[in-house]
Amino acid sequence: MAEGWTTGRLAEALGHYDGEFAVEALGGEEPVLRVSMREQGDLSVFLSVAGDQIVASTLLWPVDEQPDADAFNRFILKAQKLVPLSNFAITEVDGRDYYELIGELAAASPIEMIVLELRVLADNAISAAGDLRSAFAA
Fold first, then answer.
1. For residues 109 and 69, what is the distance between their CA atoms, to the nearest angstrom?
2. How far is the CA of 103 from the CAs of 21, 66, 100, 115, in angstroms?
3. Which Pfam families match (predicted)?
4. For residue 123, which of 37, 8, 5 has the smallest C-alpha distance?
5. Structure pTM?
6. Cα 60 to chain center, whole Å?
7. E strands, the chain, in order
């Protein structure tokens, strides 16, 4: 899509992926889509379009539930390549900090690249929740 995506056009395009995704537009100041990844246990990935960028993100788990969060934070900053095409962040939701996994694309990316980003982000989130988190369990 040469002119870039809007959340409305993106929701429509993702709806053509034969039931792989359930797409819901969320209200709020900035338009956001919640994409339920059906093949990954209905994991929610949030998509937003701003200017020249599309951001895809998913919440992982609360920071205060991570054993030895300081060591875990250092580990994920040093081992970022364990989750290809995704970045860790910490975001606040309802006054509580959560780990978040984020991917970014150009707003002019073809739908096939956006779908790939959604799939990779979901797979990385599942891997992070299992393998990485359990490596630091007490």
1. 35
2. 17, 22, 10, 12
3. DUF2170
4. 37
5. 0.86
6. 9
7. 21-26, 32-37, 43-50, 53-62, 87-93, 96-106
Name the architecture of domain 7-135. Answer: 2-Layer Sandwich (3.30)
Query: What does each C-alpha distance from 9 to 110, 115, 116 come to in angstroms?
Result: 12, 14, 17
Ordered by start, the domain boundaries in the chain are: 7-135
| Contact between residue 105 and residue 22 where contact means Cβ atoms under 8 Å apart | no
* 56-104: pLDDT as tens digits: 999 999 999 998 889 888 888 877 666 778 899 999 999 999 999 999 9
User: What is the rounded distance in angstroms from the CA atom of residue 42 to the CA atom of residue 99?
Assistant: 18
For residues 128 and 62, give the distance between their C-alpha atoms in angstroms, rounded to a whole number.
13
97 half-sphere exposure, CB direction, 13 A CA radius? 9
10 Å Cβ neighbour count for 35?
A: 26
